[in-house]
Amino acid sequence: MASELIKHVTDASFESDVLQPGSTVLVDYWAEWCGPCKMIAPILDDVSKAYEGKITITKMNVDENREIPAKFGIRGIPTLMIFKNGELVATKVGALAKPQLTAFIDQHVG
């Protein structure tokens, strides 16, 4: 079961949910059929609790939303992107283990 702290974003809500000044947001681009996406989901749940108030964790289904993934050139999933104050600051492609994920987030949360 996904954490209630993880927000599902769409092409329509992306600007208001992700590109806000003063916010740090991680977007997980995923799909139902993606095995590595399923592997990373419980790790994102854990991290969303540990980093509550520091970073917002969001997920975007690439099968249901085409515009934003195309805009950012998403080729492989899972792709994780961190946006800070509305600017893309970091990207990782592929499933990360929890230590890799927290290290990736720690570089941009402070």
Automatic annotation (TrEMBL):
Pfam family, one: Thioredoxin
Protein's UniProt keywords contain Electron transport: yes
Matches recorded under CDD domains: TRX_family
Family assignment from sequence similarity: Belongs to the thioredoxin family.
Native organism: Comamonas avium
Alphabetized UniProt keyword annotations: Disulfide bond, Electron transport, Redox-active center, Transport
Ranges for domain Thioredoxin: 1-110
SUPFAM superfamilies associated with the record: Thioredoxin-like
Protein name: Thioredoxin
